[in-house]
Amino acid sequence: MSAPLTLLDKLWSAHEIFRGEDGTSLLWVDRHLVHEGSHHGFAKLAARGAKVAQPRLTFGVVDHYAPTRNRQADMAPDISKMIKKLTENAKVHGIRLFDLFDPAQGIVHVIGPEQGLTLPGLLINCGDSHTSTHGALGALAFGIGATEVAHVLSTQTIWQKKPAAMRITVEGNLGPGVSAKDIALNWIAKLGVGGAQGHAVEYAGSTIRGLSIEGRMTLCNLSIEGGARFGMVAPDETTFAYLNGKPYSPNGSDWETAVIAWKSLKSEDGALFDRDVHILASEIAPTVTWGISPEQAIPVDANIPEPASMTDGKGSAAAAALDYMGLCGGTPISGTPVDQVFIGSCTNGRIEDLRAASAVLAGRKSQVPGIVSPGSSLIKAQAEQEGLNTIFTDAGLEWVAAGCSMCVGMNGDLVAPGKRCASSTNRNFKGRQGQGARTHLMSPAMVAAAAVTGRITDVRLLLQEGQL
Asked: pLDDT at residue 468 above 70?
């Protein structure tokens, strides 16, 4: 009898065309998602006079440079140039483009699942590291570089070495105010940014099964911040309910056939993983970063670590991070004043995230300025139908259009030098949100709590006071 297979084994073998002597596999790509930054790949095609091999499997999205305000106005030349180049490439190669004025426009890793372009069992590539988001629906999804983008455009295939298999099992019920964002920051803080290096992470356990698809996408999105090549969750009834009726999902008898096939996409009993990690949900608290790496994170009710007490050579890095962030070790992270807030991104810009934040902000005023950028135009429309936009604007926050926005700041939405931002995004590196910007990663509910108090605040305290 053959050995029990992991979900990774099944997805990899289903797409493997050829394996070289060095173990590198040539894989078929089911979906190739391109954005403004993919212009290098198209330029390589143009230099050879080549065409996109499978335009019907290639989808363009304007997101990184998408203006979030007054899109009819003249754009900055650098922004306009990037958007125009993608538009031209999509037209030349016959690619479906979700442009600025498309009703379904949004962040690539939000609209992929939203449109049903992301389906269980597919291999999905994009020239963006957070492509791992799509693994939440049981897809094999990972980011690729500029040269690889050109290869996929030319051949609809990708060369990759199969990563080792890792499983993170989370069991039990999450406490009040604790979300998928906290699960991710928790394990990254415990294992470090290299904790999953060289591995594909499969998330399992009762806690994961209890998450919505939105929560699972947050978890898979952040997998790479812990060093993983990508993250995955086996599809289940929650997955099928989410996908049913999406524009690009199968329908009719094709839907029934697809669901039967998708139900087999799970790790078999007894399958071996190269690394197995177990976490209790009851031990996870609302979590916030204090430094310049996602692993530099602590429970919101904890003290900032003192560099002198740190081992494994992390003390000097911690001291440098604290210096950049303007913080002191040994002091509580809670109560740290913030200058502004941001809610959005491919990590936490979905309707569930906006609902969680608006529940905290309802009837309150933000003490600091901030931006709320939905992950897609469809999410923006849904939020407006539910009245969430009014809650945000009544609180004093700015309700803007969909795009990557302040997560990376390519569109001009930036945090000023030296300013501190409570952010629902995925990276807190130096300069990520603007030169000299100080970023604290946290969940949307925690961002909202920071907004109404003007400082990093444990959202559970508001819950205990019966104010939500």
From this structure: no
